[in-house]
Amino acid sequence: MRQKTTLPADGLTGRARRARTEPMAVRPLRDGRYVVETDGGTYVVDIDARTCTCPDNAIRHARCKHLRRVAIEITLGEVPLPGEKSATCAVCGSRTFVPMDFHGPALCADHEHRPGDLVRDRETGGLLVVMRRLHTRADETPTPTGKLVSEYETNEEYGDHEPVFEAVYLESIRATANLDALEHQRAYRFPASRLRRVERQFIRQRTAEPAAVLA
């Protein structure tokens, strides 16, 4: 159960100020609405419909302090958007948000990889292009040889519970290749934390044709 908290409100007045200075606890519901507990009562906010069960909104149709507080906490990342739920990042343990119907190990924004991302293999230093994420753990995902991803010695330092990514080594890709062409390249499977997103400067240092790769 979340505790009531307040937020800084320098320079604000009226409902905007009360939304921050009055103690409130916001709790998401599975149907996409939010319960807002205050010292004066408990109300239900529907952020999409812009409604609240408090008199200020229900009777006077004002954008009440409860609606404002929910919007603020969504923006601050304190509560998920409607249709999302809280989860724990499998790499760092921090809180993150995932779709309500999501299953499998979750990742925060710092450890997530998207198809087409350039990443570095922490073990070899090689550059790879991410193909896809598999929503299974390293200790339950086999490689083409039948060996589990977690069973490789080079993966011993990475979590067995982490989700697995498929990626193609950059050196095996033609400069003009697109994601569709990558489907025909040999892909390797890695625990999430073995792959690190790289900066453009690193790519320039590791590739002979940076302009073609980065175009």
Key attributes of the depicted protein:
zinc-finger, alpha+beta, 6 helices, five-stranded antiparallel beta sheet, four-stranded antiparallel beta sheet, 2 domains, 215 residues, disordered C terminus, 11 strands, elongated
Question: What is the helix/strand order?
Answer: HEEEEHHEEEEEHEEHH
Note the total helix count. Answer: 6
> What percent of residues adopt helix (DSSP H or I)?
10-25%
End-to-end separation = 49 Å
Radius of gyration: 23 Å
What's the story with the biggest beta sheet? Answer: 5 strands, antiparallel
* pLDDT < 50 stretches: 207-215
Mean pLDDT: 89
- List the domain count as a whole number: 2
Structural class: alpha+beta
What would the principal axes of the Cα set say about the shape? elongated
Strand segment count: 11
Strand order of the largest sheet: 10-9-8-7-11
